Amino acid sequence: MKVMVLQSIFMVFIIIMVIILSFAESNERKPPNLIIMLMDDMGWGDLGVFGEPNKETPNLDRMASQGTLLTDFYTANPLCSPSRAALLTGRLPIRNGFYTDNAHARNAYTPQEVDGGITSEILFSELLSKAGYYNKIVGKWHLGHQYKYLPLQHGFDEWFGSANCHFGPYDGKSTPDIPVFRNNEMIGRYYQDFKINLKTGESNFTKLLISEAVNFIKNASSSPKPFFLYWTPDSSHAACYASRDFLGKSRRGLYGDAVMELDYGVGQILNTLKELEIENNTFVFFTSDNGAALVSKTSAGSNGPFLCGKQTTFEGGMREPAIVWWPGVVPAGQVSYQPSTVMDLFSIALGLASVETPKDRIIDGIDLLPSWVQGKNIDRPIFYYRGNELMAARYGMYKAHFWCWTNSYDEFKQGIDYCPGMDLKGMTSHEQLNHTSQPILFHLGRDPGEKFQLNSQSDEYKKALQSIMAQVNDHRSTLEPGKPQLNMCDRAVMHWSPPGCEKLDDCLKPPPSKPYKCDWPH
Ligand SMILES: [Ca+2]
């Protein structure tokens, strides 16, 4: 009997040791953590390291010196929602449905009244979650605001932030104020509960987003699960805001104050990784969702040497600041010229998590981490869409414009200008110009500002166009446009009474449902 008890105790001991050892081993083999820091309307030229003359981004500049700077990184669309949908799905908006075909070549996004959102797509947050990652989004979501579209229904374990931009304040009668969520419940609304002073630009919201991110990293680092943090502050989107510590600090005005606070936040996040000694097991990426909104003129960011800004498919609308940081893996102080896109982050995330790429759909992203790390470029096209239209394509150093348009004369006459001080004939037009029979070509190395058109009779033009068209034809041969999600609007679907409103006694009565075609003016 005594022997049997001893045997049992011994067996229990062995089992406990096996569990401890396998746990230690699994911890050792823990896949890398992932942090994507996605800014809102920040331009390529806004970082000191990219040449911004006031040099007010010391943390980002340090991040670049400790990591690799990407000069040729692109978004998938010059507007928030489609860009973010492309990042998380690895697919162009024309495929993932984040576009409209209500009118030709119109940009569209997810305001409160839009009926659509992310539907039949696979988000890498969902795949990472299945692979054992613990995921949090801190900030703006923008893939639809109805319950079924929100982050916790798409692979995220936690969320602090909003489904939309911080537009407002609204009257609560014709339009509700935009709610801020904790997970699946509203915990207040912008302006009412989360203050933004539109006169002074003061708000502590970025401060909250920084502490949410830092606390999440601290908590998640002690878990055996790897984590994914998607940090998406929106203070650099008009109307810009900054907390009291940063107000009036920038030589660039309020926009600069917002950038300085975001830069500080980047520093806080990287320092936290170092303090926790997990920087060698954490892939960190910094970029922006679209080019600087030059429509705001002196209140806008900078797209450096590039033409125009947000809303356009010129380089200023779609080329983004980008830094990859992973001490011990990504070389320090390196520059990568590899043409890359937000959709590549989908493929890189799956690569890091050793998750298989979905086989039932075309993925536009490529796992370019080896190219960035080794400084070797691979050839790949960049497609510049606006709504349902392929406006331009880049291959190698050449870019061809098939369609050129900024916005309508009607809008332009009201002072809405996406290319202030940058009028180029045949390019920055207020009529949609069809150049498909003879595309306009530029060499982006010699002419990053797209000012000097290649002579269409030259051998260089003919050769470059041929190689671009081969890529475009290949792309078109496989293209099955997704069902456009951003066509229909309905004021009844706005956030009148989101989950959690009862606890706050802030449930508003929605109007009767009256679906209509959304009007996208540009
Ligand atoms: Ca944006």
From TrEMBL:
**Name of a matching Pfam family:** Sulfatase_C
Query: Where is each Sulfatase N-terminal domain found?
Result: 32-354
Q: Which domain of life is it from?
A: Eukaryota
Name the UniProt key words of this record, in alphabetical order: Calcium, Disulfide bond, Glycoprotein, Hydrolase, Lysosome, Membrane, Metal-binding, Signal, Transmembrane, Transmembrane helix
What Enzyme Commission number does this protein have? 3.1.6.4
Chemical reaction(s) catalysed: Hydrolysis of the 6-sulfate groups of the N-acetyl-D-galactosamine 6-sulfate units of chondroitin sulfate and of the D-galactose 6-sulfate units of keratan sulfate
Q: Name one GO molecular function term.
A: metal ion binding
What GO cellular component term, any one, is given? lysosome
The transmembrane residues are 6-24
Q: What class of enzyme is it?
A: hydrolase
Name its cellular compartments: Lysosome
Q: Which cofactor does it need?
A: Ca(2+)
Q: Which SUPFAM superfamilies match?
A: Alkaline phosphatase-like (SSF53649)
Subunit field text: Homodimer.
What protein family is recorded? Belongs to the sulfatase family.
Q: From the Swiss-Prot or TrEMBL record, give the protein name.
A: N-acetylgalactosamine-6-sulfatase
Q: Which organism is it from?
A: Trichonephila inaurata madagascariensis
Biological classification of the source: Eukaryota, Metazoa, Ecdysozoa, Arthropoda, Chelicerata
